[in-house]
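Technical note accompanying the year-one report. For the benefit of new consortium partners, we illustrate the data format agreed upon in the data management plan: each record pairs a sequence with a structure-token string. No post-processing was applied to the example shown here.
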Amino acid sequence: MSQITSKYAYGRQIGNKTEKEIELIVNNFFNSIQIPSHWQYNSIDDAYNSSDKVLLSSGHVFKTTADTGTMYIKIAFIIASERGAICEKTFDDINKPRYRTVISNKTIEQINEYIQQNY
């Protein structure tokens, strides 16, 4: 089993964890997030370092239709800090995607609270 060391980390370091340990942490994070019933699961969106293919973050994308139109919401788990983030992806009038980080570097509880209050 290989060891993963993040050299791109900031804040709290994840240290030398195996791929299995990281998978367990990521699964626990996503299983603990309280997703609203009107969000439809869309896809997985993981981010890797381009040079050595180290997993930097794991994301789940959800689709929701709001009064302003279709919106995609990405819940991401940042591997190095073991914290989460929420990003929104919308499309402007000419169908160009726009991304906006709503919150970042948050615990599971903080993300659940934000979702409950804002969605």
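Partners are asked to follow this layout when depositing records. Residues 19-32 form the longest helix (14 residues).
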